[in-house]
Amino acid sequence: MNARCIALSLGAAICLTATVHAAAPAAADAAFLKEAALDGQFDIQSSRLAERLGQNEVVKKYAAQMVDDNRRIENALKKLAMDKKVDLPVGPGDAHHAALKKLSAQKGDAFDRAYMEQAGPKRQAASLKQFQQAAANAKDKDVRAFAQEMVPVLTDHHTRAVETAAALKK
After folding, report:
1. Residue 113 neighbours by CB under 8 Å, 6+ apart
2. Is the Cβ–Cβ distance between 13 and 146 less than 8 Å?
3. What pLDDT is stored for residue 19 in this prediction?
4. CA torsion through residues 10, 71, 65, 113, sign
5. Do 33 and 80 contact (CB within 8 A), yes or no?
6. Complete DSSP assignment for the chain
7. Tell me: the pLDDT tens digits for 40-70?
8. Which residues lie closer than 8 Å to 117 by C-beta, 6 or more apart?
9. For FRET with 79, which of 108, 125, 146, 167 sits at 20 to 30 Å CA-CA?
10. Are 14 and 7 in contact (CB under 8 A)?
11. pLDDT tens digits for range 121-151
12. For residue 146, which of 81, 91, 87 has the smallest C-alpha distance?
């Protein structure tokens, strides 16, 4: 059921972004799109590391879902940004790059714990808050609609992160 809701939400977001206008969004809206792209890239890259280096199967399953969902979000985000003439950053930013480097040096259980510290509940709560704020405050209706469509997906990410972190502590 969750996967179906996510797929429907992502599909709706892609449809919504297909009807955007060419007008450039407000600076805050463009900043949201850029920050969402940076954070999404971090989630994808850290989760790809977890798929490869993770020891715990629950962590690996969480990571695989994060990669899949964030790739779909990224595709919708790229389409919206292109339509709005917003240049998105390619790859994670400097702070994310440093975190990825530190994370990739971990092994075994230490990796799983470090991954969940970097990409787990705190990270997903911050991402959810960012999208909730854009959903409520974005000036551009298409950016606002995109954020609104992603809030349920990011709520699910946060829930899964909390559950995965709890399972890891058992």
Report:
1. 168
2. yes
3. 45
4. negative
5. yes
6. -HHHHHHHHHHHHHHHHTT--SSPPPHHHHHHHHHHHHHHHHHHHHHHHHHHH--SHHHHHHHHHHHHHHHHHHHHHHHHHHHTT-PPPSS--HHHHHHHHHHHT--HHHHHHHHHHHHSHHHHHHHHHHHHHHHHH-SSHHHHHHHHHHHHHHHHHHHHHHHHHHHHH-
7. 999 999 999 999 999 999 999 999 999 999 9
8. none
9. 125
10. no
11. 999 999 999 999 999 999 999 999 999 999 9
12. 81
Rounded alpha-carbon distances, angstroms, from residue 165 to 90, 97, 99, 116, 142? 29, 23, 19, 6, 34
- Global confidence as pTM: 0.83
In this prediction, residue 10 carries a pLDDT of 52
Residue-wise pLDDT tens digits, 78-109 = 999 999 999 999 877 788 889 999 999 999 99
